Give the backbone structure.
Amino acid sequence: MKTTNIMIVGVGGQGSLLASKLLGSLLLDEGYDVKVSEVHGMSQRGGSVVTYVKFGEKVYSPIITEGEADYILSFEKLEAARWAACLKKDGKIIVNTQQIDPMPVLIGTAAYPETVLDELTAKGVDVDAVDALSIATAAGSAKAVNIVLLARLAKLLDIPYEKWLAAIEKNVKPRFVDLNKAAFEMSYQK
């Protein structure tokens, strides 16, 4: 059994840590050896957050380096570009089309690169661009972006749909379970 490498990248406060916790829990329940590592950076100030999730028969290190990621879940467009070098040649980036301006853009010293996803595609990167914010909002909360992106990943992994729903029940606060299940279903069906 090969090891699968997943990076979850975003900006502080977007729910990427819950996404990695839920994914790690699901994979453990499926019987995989799982390693998860989080790098917070300046996450409380809107900075980059990166989580590595590796699973397989036996995993020795959680770190994913350049050219090793099978999948990258990106909660924001610029973060997809920032971490694209970590993707394998046949890997896939699932990216929320939301734009969150970094500090240089906010203070006017830089412009946000509007064509960032087109540039990735032009380089041959397999990009699944999804308006996760709209789907999450339609499900009841903008904070469900993480679950929307996980649903896109769920379609690519060999784990039954019902197991993903059970992982949501296990890892999400009870009062938010129905909302997150709705977000998962809406994204999974698209």
In short: The mean pLDDT is 92. The radius of gyration is 16 Å. The chain has one domain: 4-189.
